[in-house]
Amino acid sequence: MKIKFWGVRGSIPAPLQQSQLVTKMIHLFDKMEDKLFSKAELKDFLTQSSSTNLFCIGGNTSCVELLANESIIIFDMGSGMRLLGNDLFKRLPNRILDIHVFLSHTHWDHIQGFPFFGPAYSPNTKITFYSPHDNIYERLNAQHDPRFFPVKLNEMACQKSFIQLEPNSSFNINNSIVVQNIEHHHPGKSYTYRIESEGKSIVYSTDAEYTNLPDDKIQSYSDFFAESDLLIFDAQYSLYEEAQKIDWGHSSALFGLDIAIKSKVKKLALFHHDPAKEDLEIIKLLESTIKYKEHYFPNNPLDVCLAYEGLEIEV
Length: 315
Ligand SMILES: [Zn+2]
Ligand SMILES: [Zn+2]
Fold this sequence. Notes:
alpha/beta, binds zinc ion
């Protein structure tokens, strides 16, 4: 299975500002340490994209693409979905697209990209929307009210179908991909998905709060994440912010690390970054999470990374 991140911010898009660009440039020059680079070396330096040398995490809200057994699966339709649509046109021209969209919930940052998803305007595109939430058609239709957007949902040419999943159940796509869901604590509820295909497993878990939950509830989440190859995790807050923002519906990188280790996850991708944090703050959050792991779990093989726009992970 192959994952690509198209939007990784939470709550609201956070485009790069001039002052942030200047801070990034200064940070970059610091890393260059007065070395003289040839043009080619400079190009290499600028294009390297390991988690700690990231140039830009990206400001689009949640949208993740998963390719499994030739099926196109999309988790959430945040503003990153616009870029994914453009890419699908380029990658798969003239192809009839059969797209499966799994929604964690319908807060704006998880649906606002859909009106700008180019393939949705083509009759050659078939989109199936899945969610344990009720009335997904009505919820999306409300976003296309003419007072808010000029094109109505039923005027978008793609074929649309809506499947309401049983909460905490399992669903099968094309007899080759199993998708389980579990309800999470979040205002209005949010659902996490676990996908199993070709002997591998990926968990998409966002907009989920764990504060003040009883131990057996935490255990049920740990069981759901157990031994997954990749866990995409809501790490919007620092541990301090998580303690301050009770009932805001989000989690932290350190809690993600703890539960990933407890669940024997292989790779943890920190996701749904706080729009109030600049990229360097988010990178520092990753660095402190890795330090914590090295100190308390030095022999644990868990790999921790930041989800950023354009990152691809194959499991
Ligand atoms: Zn969100
Ligand atoms: Zn939300």
